Amino acid sequence: YLIEFLEVGGVLTALEILGAKATKEKDKSQALRLLIIICNYGRKYKEIICESFGVRAITECLAKSKSEDTQENAKAVLMQLAEGNPRFQNQVYKAFIALMSSTSPKAQQLSLQGLRVVQKIVDTPNPNLVQPLINLLKSLHLEVQYEAMAYIQQLMTLDVRNSVLINLVKCLEVSKDDSMKGLPEILHENDIAAMNAPLPVYVQQAAAAKIISILVKESNEVSKELLQLGVVHNLLIAAGNASHPDSQRQAGIALEYFVNTFPIVKEHVMKSLGKPFFTEFMARPDTIYSSMTSIQVDVLVSNNVDIPLALKYNSK
Length: 316
Description:
By secondary structure, this protein is mainly α. It is 72% helix and 0% strand. The chain has helices at residues 2-7, 10-19, 25-39, 43-51, 54-64, 68-82, 89-99, 105-122, 130-135, 142-155, 161-171, 176-180, 189-196, 200-218, 220-228, 231-239, 245-261, 263-273, 275-283, 294-301, 307-314. α5 runs parallel beside α7 (89-99), α7 (89-99) packs antiparallel against α8 and α8 (105-122) packs parallel to α10 (142-155). The termini are far apart. The model is unreliable at 182-189 (pLDDT under 50).
């Protein structure tokens, strides 16, 4: 039956159903389930789907679909096509990377889940994944942030680690230009609700501080690499972002670790903040933001802590 189905163009028909605008979501889901069944027959049949431009059709369906059931099924087919299919596993990997830039939060979440599995199959990471991955830290959807952070943790053992860490440190310092991006020049009624939501760059700043806290507690090597990248200076800036309390809280938690772990950090942060403010800060790094004075905020934002220079000087 399967061979007859393939001979009459069954795979191409199933793929055409996915791309047809008039097709109902339930029909797309059925077409995807059919492709899953075909995949179960082995590598030869997976290759037939891929040779019929299946990866592209399924990826576009996942990105554009308004049905979570359809999206889940599309992800399931892509996962099948990546496993035990060496000729096309890289194509599926690149498809999941492309999906990170989708405007659908569900597609973003599924792409990250897929990448965490397919990364182990392809092993060598594609450097083009770093920027779209870091951009997902701007998401207001907690499920997307969770998956992005889990994938970042996974990448710490691979050769894109330095690039990921550089970008995380950059996210901690938000310029005025960055904070104004995406804001309308003239406010309309429907813009007011958007104005009340946190700015994406602030959400990204808080998320970067949070994942840095997680990473440094898992690896002393990563901690030292971050020190060389100037993370302490930028964490102090984030701790002074009075426009976004979550940035202040997450940065405070990360700073507490660095201060308590590295004497050189404690020395330079204390010198920059002054002993009274430093003592107050370290007593409650995760809540001090709620009672910070404007002068203390200025001290944090304008800090001149330079740990990379101090480490270089100490090594002489």
